[in-house]
Each structure stands twice: as structure tokens, then as C-alpha cells.
Amino acid sequence: MRPAIKPITLVLGLLLSAHIQAAPFASIDCSHVEEPISQEKLKYKSNKDELQSLSHTATIYSYGKNGQETTSIEQSPQVAVKVWNGWLTGSDRGEWGGELVFVDASGNPEILLNDNIHDIYKTDNGAIVIAGLSHMLSNDGRIYLVTRNGASVDYRILFGLDGAPKESWMTSSGEIYINTSYGVSILKTDSTLERALCKGHEYYKYEGKR
């Protein structure tokens, strides 16, 4: 019986080696469907009027002939998720900034942080916020976790992304996919982050220094 072990081990090793050589960095299937319409989550595309009722005052910073200038506007968010008897809202004005805001049950807005908010997802551990901006030489992104701590709403950065989010979605199993110019980051339900490439998606090709 002992002499047969070596050939079996050799065959298994060859099969494993062939599999690795065939697809060492295989792309994954990232096909998904749009989120169903829900009263718990508002998107600008289908809930413009409802989002306008959750507006907040935002400050836009710019530079003129006299230096830095500020302008106050009424900002309607692009996304809002119902949490903690209120709404967590996100806005994105591109190079002019954006905000993550908590609007309490009385309609009072509190700006939690200034960032370009791409999307918000409600999970068992809190709200996951996807943010970032690609503008001129800037191309970065972040994943925030927002939680309720007594009467206050707190946030912290979970992960930095390799680029600004282009699209994101949550799967039926609770994983969150974030596509950037360089690949897809997958926030797993165990709070770890994985990297992969989506089939059929064009990613940035680095050509090196010239």
C-alpha cells in the first residue's frame, strides 16, 4: 500500500499546479441588480422630492481675487437611509465637496463629516458609508462605519480604498462591492476587505513612468 501513496501525491500536485497556472488571477462575476425601491432608503433618481425635505445648509469654499470665499447653500442630499428614528443622508458636489448628515426625528440636521458621499448601506453593525472623489490629481476613497453611541452618532474610517468609488452595491448575503478604476473591493460580513477584478469591467492600466 505504501508505494501507491507517492504516485497519488504526485498526481494531486500536478492537478493543483495546472489549476493555478490556468487562472492565477481570475476575474469574478460581479453582475448585480439595482436595489429595490424601499421607504427605508431614498435615492435621488426616484425620491427627489422626499430628499429635498431632508436638506441641510452647506458651506462651499472657493478662491477669488480676495482669497478664500465662502458661500452657504441649501443642499438636498443624493441618498438617505432611515436609521435610529432619523435619517442618515449623503451629498456629493464633486470638487465642491459633500457632507454626511444625521437628521433626527425632529428634522434637525447635524453634519457628521465633510466628504463626497457615494452611497450608504444599513447593516446589523451600523451604517456603512462609501465616499471619495476623483478630480484632477486626486483619486481616493474611504469606507466609514457610522454607529449610535447613546444620544450621539459617531463615525470612524474602516478602510481606505485604492481609488474613488465608481459604483457600489450590496449583495443578498450582505457583502458590499465597491468598484474603482483599479479593481473591486469587497467588504465582507466578517468586517474584512478583499480585492478582486470584475469580469467585463475596464480598469485603469498603469503604463509606468515615461
Please explain how this structure is put together.
By secondary structure, the protein is mostly beta strands. The chain has one domain (26-59, 70-196). 12% of the residues lie in helices and 46% in strands. It contains 2 helices and 15 strands. The strands form 4 sheets. Strands 1-4-5-6-7 form a 5-stranded antiparallel β-sheet. β14 (184-187) and β15 (193-196) form a beta hairpin. The longest helix is centred in the first third of the chain and has 21 residues, at 2-22. The radius of gyration is 22 Å and the shape is globular. The relative contact order is 0.12. The model is unreliable at 18-22 (pLDDT under 50).
Radius of gyration: 22 Å
Q: Round the mean pLDDT to the nearest integer and report it.
A: 85
Number of strands: 15
Class computed from helices, strands and strand pairing: mainly beta
Q: Helical amount among residues, as a percent range?
A: 10-25%
**Topology order in helix (H) and strand (E) letters:** HEHEEEEEEEEEEEEEE
Strand percentage = over 45%
Distance between the termini: 61 Å
How many structural units, i.e. domains? 1
Signal peptide: 1-22
Organism: Pseudomonas fluvialis
Keywords: Signal
Protein name: Lipoprotein
Compose a concise summary of this entry:
With 210 residues, this protein is mostly beta strands.
